[in-house]
Amino acid sequence: MEPTKSKRPVLFFDIDNCLYPKSLCPETITIAALADIVGTGNNINEMMVELINDYFARHLELSAEDAKMLHQKYYKDYGLAITGLALHHKIAPLEFNREVDDALPLDDIISFNPQLRQLLADIDKAKVKMWLFTNAYITHAQRVVRLLGIEDMFEGITYCDYSRVPIRSKPHTEMYEKAEFEAGASSVDGCFFVGKRLKYFSRHTAVLLHLNFD
User: What is this structure's pTM?
Assistant: First the structure.
């Protein structure tokens, strides 16, 4: 069923490294415990990279250096490492998600952010439709916004569906068109994006925003 077209402009929010700072580090988890989980990475972005590199090394039987290089190649070529893994190595995306995104110790890193919640609450919802838009799978996305205490601030979410291969993700045009459709945007001219990877929307919108907490 086609979503009802919104008469309001749609304000899309990225999640990772946008609704929380890229430099966000663990506070309650010990360094020793963290090393057991994700090696030496000291923030969410670094932890994610290390988990992905480790996944490549273990499942493809690669050296650490080769795993890192192939990870970077797939990220550059496809926008997501898992896309390359699924296409070329028949890796099940949902298994990857379980061992990588869902393995992040987010409960020890992300916490309720009252300033962020107030910022979002101050946006006039009668004038703009707020929508989440992420390359993550739904489980990771929901966990992040729940921990931040802002899950009720948005009318919906467009996420990267790991259950469908080939996987469609940002920065490819199809992913932006999917977000536009699911959010019921009346046209791309009424779409505004908070975050990075603006390849599609930036050609059509005059106002682009980025939250920077660093």
Answer: 0.84
Tell me the per-residue pLDDT of 54-102, one tens digit each, with 9 for 90 and over: 999 999 999 999 999 999 999 999 989 999 999 999 999 999 999 999 9
Find where tokens 């101050």 sit.
122
∠ at Cα 49 (107, 101), nearest 5°?
40
- The DSSP output letter for 209 is B
Judge contact between 26 and 143, C-beta under 8 A: no
Q: Give the containing element (helix H, strand E) for 146.
A: helix 138-148
Amino acid letter for position 168: R
**Tokens 């199809």 label which residue?**
174
Q: What is the DSSP string of 67-121?
A: HHHHHHHHHHHHSSHHHHHHHHH---HHHHHHHTGGGS-GGGT----HHHHHHHH
Structural Rg of the chain based on CA atoms: 18
- Rounded Cα distance between 45 and 198, Å, is 19
CA distance readout (Å), 200 to 18, 39, 168, 181: 18, 35, 14, 14
Cα(83)–Cα(95) distance, integer angstroms: 13
